[in-house]
């Protein structure tokens, strides 16, 4: 069995990598993974929020199926009794050494979720957590800082210089621990290692030496606001004023945006250097040609696009993430243009390990790789639903806002076509798929509550006093068949 290495920066949008066309930054080490395998041009995260995206990555299930639709939810406490497993648990049973280094954003934060080894550096905003990175800082007489403890935090809209030396940076620490793990891992048994870099998530706080490499004037301009995006701005401003961030984005000028982007680029560059170190140790230990490497992110960052910051909403800046799959044994590099979902990572890891794919996950494996295009990507957060099919994206928000974009002709999502009679048949077709997916997912999420009884049979247990319900995990297929019959 081949080793599996999954590298996942937090909040990395695709267009800040040179292999995805960025000219304002050079990321040679991440780019080198493309030279060994497949770059997916259009990978969509179904949930552009940290915790829901990670639940989807672990299970291959969308947010309705997992019950995780925002950062205050996590996988069910009794999920194993429900038959809901993570790919890490499945690989562990298969004989893999499973390990997770860096940010995972589980609840509780030190939960195993199938990883035998956990070396933890949690979210950059979680300054009160006593994880391994906190212990490291304390041992050096240092501590984790809130963004507002940095000079210029408010005036620069969260773009600051970290007072920590480069060797103490959180992403450097994750790189150090990953290199150490790979230097000592038992090569007689396959490993499955997930590396979670906490950057380039905000605060946008690179060390001075990395920040000096990027000029705000060289950053790409942000995408203009639209009538649709303006409806989200009050909520974004209010959210960022809360204690977790404490930045007022009511005034978010072009200069602010360019500085934020320059600092974000510096954080990306720092991660690229760590990826280079990881590739080096794999090469030195003769593991590179025995390891499947997957590089992806949980979601993007608006970075001033549409006058917004962060993620949550279904704009491309938020949902379009990098995905690179470099298989063992160097193969001809290629680019896949068809749309894939971030949940497909779970299916691909299972396929690579020879683990059967659970029924009705809605995920697809792209091992080396599927030449069949995915029909569509369905997404959900507490804010609403998204469907991406071919060139079209439909977004329906809980606020009542609806948007339909032609991504081929309008990649910056400036023209909402939802009221255009010329595309009414397409809107209707997308809506039908969206409704079916919501109903199927709801039925799946309730599969263990399904009661299969025969009330007409007096000899059946259900007909007797004292009959009790039991959790069943065999009804997902029934749920899907029932949903098909209803539609």
Radius of gyration: 23 Å
Q: Alpha-carbon distance between the termini?
A: 43 Å
CATH superfamily of the largest domain: Alkaline Phosphatase, subunit A
Poorly predicted ranges (pLDDT <50, ≥5 residues)?
475-487
Give the overall pLDDT as a whole number.
92
**CA-based shape:** globular
CATH hierarchy, class of the largest domain: Alpha Beta
Structural domains: how many: 2
Helix percent band: 25-40%
Kindly estimate the percentage of residues that lie in beta strands according to DSSP: 15-25%
How would you spell out the order of helices and strands? Answer: EHEHHHEEHHEHHHHEHEEEHEEEEHH
Derived structural class? alpha/beta
CATH third-tier fold name of the largest domain: Alkaline Phosphatase, subunit A
How many β-strands, per DSSP?
13
Count of DSSP-assigned helices: 14
Top keywords for this entry?
4-stranded antiparallel sheet, Alkaline Phosphatase, subunit A, 9-stranded mixed sheet, alpha/beta, 14 helices, 487 residues, 13 strands, single chain, disordered C terminus
Describe this structure in words.
With 487 residues, this protein is an alpha/beta fold. Helices cover 30% and strands 16% of the residues. The protein has two domains: 3-379, Alkaline Phosphatase, subunit A (3-Layer(aba) Sandwich), CATH 3.40.720; 394-486, no CATH class. The chain has helices spanning 28-34, 50-59, 63-66, 87-93, 132-139, 170-184, 208-211, 227-230, 233-241, 254-284, 316-319, 344-353, 424-445, 476-486, and strands spanning 3-10, 38-44, 97-102, 117-120, 191-200, 291-296, 320-321, 323-326, 334-341, 377-381, 384-389, 392-397, 402-406. The strands form two sheets. Strands 1, 2, 3, 4, 5, 6, 7, 8 and 9 form a nine-stranded mixed beta sheet that branches. A four-stranded antiparallel beta sheet has the order 10-11-12-13, covered by helices on one side. Helix 13 runs antiparallel to helix 14. The longest helix has 31 residues, at 254-284.
